[in-house]
Amino acid sequence: MKKIEGKIRKAIDRYSLIQAGDHIAVGLSGGKDSMALLAGLAAISKYYPHPFTLTALSVDPCFSNTATDFTETSAVCNALGIEHRVKITNLGEIIFDIRKEKNPCSLCARMRRGALHDMCVEAGCNKLALGHHMDDVAETFFLNLFHEGRIAAFSPKTYLSRKNITMIRPLVFCPEREIINAVARSGLPTVEKSCPHDGVSERQTIKRFIAQKENEYPGFLKRTFTAIQKADVSGFGITECIGSDVIEEK
User: Fold this and answer.
1) Which residues make beta-bridge pairs with 85?
2) Which is it for the CA torsion 28, 33, 37, 38, positive or negative?
3) Greatest CA separation found in the chain?
4) What's the mean per-residue pLDDT of the chain?
5) Would you say 186 and 180 are in contact if contact means Cβ atoms under 8 Å apart?
6) In whole angstroms, what is the distance from residue 14 CA to residue 236 CA?
7) Is the pLDDT of residue 180 over 70?
8) How confident is the model at residue 247 (pLDDT cuts 50, 70, 90)?
9) Are 132 and 8 spatial neighbours (Cβ–Cβ below 8 Å)?
10) What is the spatial distance between Cα 8 and Cα 5, in angstroms, rounded to a whole number?
11) pTM, full prediction
């Protein structure tokens, strides 16, 4: 985890993600990315020059009307001295049973994010850390390019004015494969995915595209990310811009 920790610290410093006194909510799905983020931020909080505190927040969509087992995830939080709050929802029922969405991923992500925002406010947190990594940045870039004809990704830091919280993404310098290896080596438990639509989204198609290009042109992922930085796409620039977009929520 030391390598991941170092890259989280790099992102924090590069994009000014954390200030002294921040109470940061970690969006904890229980997957490899959020577990790596939690462990990395917990380690950094012990020595970072600008003190901050953490609370872990999990939104359970209850896919197939079954509650997610967060027992091991909560045990990790307890060992780290971090409060873990879980919100049980009926998002799975709404999306798959009631609305019968053919392309559910976008709606599910928005609804889960909205629930996380509310939990963040209820917990008294001023920032929400999400586990999006370098692969996610590239995938979002290509999704926007191929499907909408625009040059954009998500930002490393986004202020939500209505909730008065800032979303931060400290894993953006971490390739997914490094996260997978770090979580496996450290023995961190993960929650098994239960979404019935997992693996069949358009994002998965883009993920396969990037993997293919990485095989044909080794280093393709990192060069794509470097190009996004050099072009200052969505606040990832390597100039003085720190990627602090402001979103006025509806």
Assistant:
1) 57
2) positive
3) 49
4) 90
5) no
6) 10
7) yes
8) very low
9) no
10) 5
11) 0.89
